[in-house]
Design brief:
alpha+beta; two-stranded antiparallel sheet; Peroxisomal Thiolase, Chain A, domain 1; nine-stranded mixed β-sheet; 385 residues
Length: 385
């Protein structure tokens, strides 16, 4: 497939998002309805039965497969497909929706990402990971190894990670749908209990429940729905060797992120991402994951992240704001919903609808989703022109 087959063929015309949190009083269906009907209203869709032709869902922990979406939205007689691809499930569902519309199979589709891990009875995405150099490890224990290696190589420290947590907590206080709305200080981060050194409590994203939705249509039909559609410039998924067993893994970069960035930059025609991207949502399951991603997607040189963190480059009022809604750090991580939630935020930013967290004059936005060991990465680039 040539790089220009996707660019500008599809557009986002509606977005919706449930409140993310410990939603004990809501079933997955409740959150799906909340997100989808907000997206319908945003797109001006008053008859989804006739206007939505297919549904693509991303979920890692569905209790009834596609049944939760079909039953909640009553879109019977339509194709409803489920995508599971680790933490990139939401972005991958979006990718399938984009491909289906760009290929001409459908004119308008719905993409839904959802998960309700709080009903699973465990505190995280898994009780343990196996096969990390043949030893058991929690996700925090595994990801923290990268921080230790990076600190040793480039002279960064816990204070640099703390500044990322403080930034994201601040941004999250400005996002109505976020779970955590609490300003924190660097001292709060450094004095919090250690989860897996150098990660303290505030370096780690929480689990949460949530759903997000996007209405996609053909670009040439988009203005039938609204005057300010957002064009899809690129969407990509990349797999890499399992870093837990990959002998060439150096603990200083995530290979799937590097590969996915190459895909989407080629699709979108981006050669200088720092100058050409105005706002980004990056997968901050841990503060170190966000730091590595700055470098892995070319927003700064390898080893230079700490200087940019210190100067506020990625702050809300910086040169390239990152995680403008607080990211996973304040929304939590209902696995299948996260990638679509990022698309929700980027669409609001590009349509100048993000309120107090609005990035002025933003025209191009990137989202980044990494998952598994991590072994997979999903990325998307949206633009207004």
């Amino acid at each position: 497939m040539s790089n220009d087959n996707i660019r500008d063929k599809t557009a986002i015309v509606g977005v919706g998002c449930s409140h993310f949190g410990e939603n004990w009083d809501k079933a997955p269906e409740d959150m799906i309805v909340e997100a989808a009907y907000e997206a319908y209203a945003d797109a001006g869709i008053d008859d989804p039965q006739t206007q939505i032709e297919a549904v693509f869902c991303g979920s890692v922990y569905p209790s009834r497969g596609t049944g939760e979406v079909a039953e909640s939205l009553k879109l019977f007689g339509k194709p409803v497909s489920l995508v599971q691809n680790y933490c990139a499930s939401g972005t991958d569902a979006f990718r399938f929706g984009v491909f289906a519309v760009a290929a001409g199979m459908y004119e308008t589709v719905l993409v839904v990402g959802f998960d309700k891990p709080k009903d699973r009875g465990v505190s995280g995405p898994s009780v343990f990971l196996t096969g990390v150099r043949d030893l058991p490890a929690t996700p925090a224990g595994w990801f923290s190894l990268c921080a230790a290696r990076y600190f040793d190589k480039y002279g960064a420290g816990r204070e640099d990670l703390a500044k990322i947590a403080v930034k994201n907590h601040h941004n999250g206080t400005l996002a109505p749908k976020s779970m955590l709305k609490r300003e924190i200080s660097i001292d709060d981060v450094l004095s919090a209990r250690i989860i897996s050194w150098p990660f303290g409590l505030y370096d780690c994203a929480a689990q949460s429940d949530g759903a997000a939705a996007v209405v996609l249509t053909r670009a040439d039909c988009a203005r039938r729905f609204r005057d300010d559609p957002v064009l899809v410039k690129a969407v990509g998924i990349a797999m890499a060797p399992n870093p837990q067993t990959d002998p060439t893994f150096d603990f200083l970069r995530w290979k799937p992120t590097v590969y996915a960035a190459e895909q989407v930059y080629a699709q979108a025609g981006i050669t200088d991402p720092f100058k050409e991207i105005d706002v980004a949502q990056l997968h901050d399951c841990f503060t170190m994951t966000e730091l590595l991603t700055y470098e892995d997607i070319g927003l700064c040189e390898k080893g230079a992240a700490k200087e940019h963190i210190a100067s506020g480059t990625f702050a809300l009022d910086g040169e390239l704001p990152v995680n403008t809604d607080g990211g996973l750090k304040t929304f939590g991580h209902p696995t299948g919903a996260t990638g679509v939630r990022m698309l929700y935020e980027n669409t609001l930013q590009l349509q100048n609808r993000a309120g107090p967290r609005q990035v002025p004059n933003a025209t191009t936005a990137l989202s980044h989703n990494i998952g598994g060991a991590p072994q997979v990465c999903g990325m998307a680039i949206l633009s207004t022109n």
